[in-house]
Amino acid sequence: MKNKTELIILTGFLGSGKSTLLQRLLQKEQQIGRRIAVIMNEIGKVSVDSASIPEKTPIRELLNGCICCSIQGDLTVQIKGLIEQYELDAIYIEATGVAHPLEIMNACTHMQLIGASYLKSVITTVHAKQWFEKKMSIKLKKLMTEQIRFADLIIINHIDGVDSSIIREVEAEIKQFNENAHFYVTSFASIQLVTNELDKQKDRLTYEAEFDAHIHHSLHIRTVNLPILSTVERVAFTNWLCQKDQLYRAKGFVQLNETPGMFLFNLSYGEVVFERLKKVNKQQPILVLIGERLEKEVIESELSSIYA
Length: 308
Description:
With 308 residues, the chain is of the alpha/beta class. The protein is built from 8 helices and 12 strands. GO terms for molecular function: hydrolase activity; nucleotide binding.
């Protein structure tokens, strides 16, 4: 009899380390020979993070919407399709950073999936410095709290450069919202999972959301996608990204003036990382910004001024 496929949800606010965590989990799964598929959700029209998924990994992308609301039904359909098409041990579902976990959990336990899959775990990443500094609106803080409340495993990430006393304070605060979850405190989403740490601690499907599951509508979160029409100078490009107010996340593909090749770049809470693509397929230079009150025309003008 075919075993049920595990469904593992990755949540966490923009820039907290979900995509890096997914890469590490997939590497581990490859090492032990498990058969894995991935579903990635982007609130915008452009997919960037899928470029980091290992070749031959079945992947489905849900773009231009949030799986906690407008494309929730699509998620169930994609899960069902993957299970029918492939022999899978698990499907990892990376939610957009403004998704509420409850609606995703409901999609993963839809009647169409009974007998074929089960919800194994909800993993939430938290940016340590962002949580401690609390430079966020009340609504945003409540969204992050809900992502924590529904987690079975919580990863307090990006602790490099953060004082140990602050890390202890952050962990203590987060445990007030979810004391039953397993915890990891790390940087670059580097963890060594014990198998049972992915098991659900309790039936969280009996919980009710304490906050609107469609919160991103009232957060004024907007995505701006722009082609990058020239090479850029790394320092000037980095400084420009880091100086933008209310920018929660930036990513894309870029060609640098000083180094040949195509680079994947990611901005998270004031830190920009560039990673050279080992293999360029259809990637074109593009900028994806996610934040509040972003003005496309202003961004276009600013970007053109830093072309090399």
